[in-house]
């Protein structure tokens, strides 16, 4: 969900809240209540969307997206995949790669539109580490791993090695305090308590849910076609719709964003030797054990 859509949803909710609260105060004033009574009564305004938080909007959106995917599965909308040609998928993958590069540049310079005019304000340590990370991944994945693949069944996980090394250096040299670098900080452990999304928010998020649902379907089924072509197996597109639908509906109870295929993570798993969903059993088991 983009920041714009989130802001529009919250603005619509607040406008309705103010409208209902104003109507309620005007109504009780006509009944002869004093100003003190009215102030006390506004604490009990019978409005069902009072104190809405951002995460509640997100969980309602996730639920609504899952329901849209379920509806698409029931209506067998998978016929749309016939329009996803190889050229379209290749262009989509290239665009995603360009997007990843632009996002990384934004993180390095902390600016997007005026990078050149703000070079003097670049954090030298952040820039040096970022360039070093690019070089490390390039040498590891494009120069070393081709030789490793000939001798080992699984390539070396240079991405994981980079994360471990960078985290260790950040801890030892205190990058956050000494060099004013942005770090992840303390990662909370455990899983959030399950709670039902606020169903009253669905009328405010269903429009965005339809848009996001179609984008998710395009991304997910495109990735399915890419990997099925690489590894010579068939996929049931309608089954994929049911899978992401149930995943979205269930995960909405655990404070999550709408579910989709992660382009970078899927490519990383595929490059690490993963070919089926069994690899996710091990990665998820590791995540559960760690947190």
Automatic annotation (TrEMBL):
InterPro entries: SLC26A/SulP_dom, SLC26A/SulP_fam. GO terms for biological process: transmembrane transport. Keywords: Membrane, Transmembrane, Transmembrane helix. The chain crosses the membrane at residues 55-75, 124-140, 152-173, 209-228, 240-259. GO terms for cellular component: membrane. It is a multi-pass membrane protein. Residues 49-284 form the SLC26A/SulP transporter domain. The keyword Membrane applies. Its main location: membrane. It comes from the Eukaryota. It is found in: Membrane. The keyword Membrane applies. This is Sulfate_transp domain-containing protein.
